Amino acid sequence: QAKNAGRNNSVIYEAGLQRLVNERLEIERGLRVALDEDQFVLYIQPQVDHMNHLTGGEILIRWLHPDKGMIPPFNFIPVAEETGLILRLGYWIIEHTFACIAQWHAEGQSVPGQISINISAWQFAQSDFTDQLHILLDEYRINPKHITLEITETALLSDIGDTKLKLALLRKTGFRISLDDFGTGYSSLAYLKDLPLDELKIDKAFVDEIRPGERQPLIESMISIGRHMNLDVLAEGVETEKQKQQLVQMGCQNFQGYLFSRPMAMSDFPEWLKAHMDMLPDPGHDYCI
Ligand code: C2E
Ligand code: MG
Ligand code: MG
Ligand code: MG
């Protein structure tokens, strides 16, 4: 009987595995079509300072599938990364972000702040990554000082020498560099302190841990590390006023999360701004795109 049960289990296991493999294949096939047919939509989520003034926004990709509707990045970015399709997708994201900014320019829309773009590890590791950025900057006449590149800890770890050089080059061009998902990887501080960075992004997982009235030694030290390294510190996934207040007390200056705004279609951003004039920084501020 035990033997039978074992056999049944392995049948169930294999059926499950087969389903996973099929799903993955289907996503991979779908992604190729999606790239050819422009089924992706750029979303943006506002970022604010302690006064709730807008400092910029993060670009978040969505897949608008003709049959399945909106597919969140969690369901296709990993497949895109495993199959190498992330290179085409990553290029698509940068190009369309730049094109949208150029269009805002042409229409005379001024959108304050930085636009942050997520760069995947493989994309960052490409030897022509910086060249691609230069070509797109030229093509869309974008000033790199308005663009922040969000790179994860794990992406930066792969080739230390190359990473440092590349980051230095990108910053020399004028890009801001943000370390995304800080604290979730395995990078040592000794290594991080040598990297040319501008911002640390504290991952939502840490923000979720904040409890009213409780001290948060871990986040507190992450924020203080950032500040000692002279970096801007931004906390993501902020959902409550309490969380924000505690983060402010711990020295965090920048925030992103549902408390301020959910991500929205990038094309809706100028309208959203008009409805949120109280979130605009003081006039005369030098950060209009
Ligand atoms: P991430 O870069 O850490 O992005 C933050 C995620 O947290 C976004 O999820 C955002 O919608 C979500 N979020 C922000 N504030 C809140 C909040 O207050 N509460 C909750 N519950 N969630 C919040 P999203 O858009 O589903 O993206 C998930 C991940 O997918 C991103 O994590 C990023 O790693 C990846 N991703 C998204 N867009 C891109 C892209 O354009 N390129 C690449 N390479 N990866 C992307
Ligand atoms: Mg990000
Ligand atoms: Mg993040
Ligand atoms: Mg995160």
From TrEMBL:
Signal peptide: none annotated. Residues 24-277 form the EAL domain. This is EAL domain-containing protein. The lineage of its organism: Bacteria, Pseudomonadati, Pseudomonadota, Gammaproteobacteria, Oceanospirillales. The chain holds residues 722 to 1010 of 1010 of the full protein.
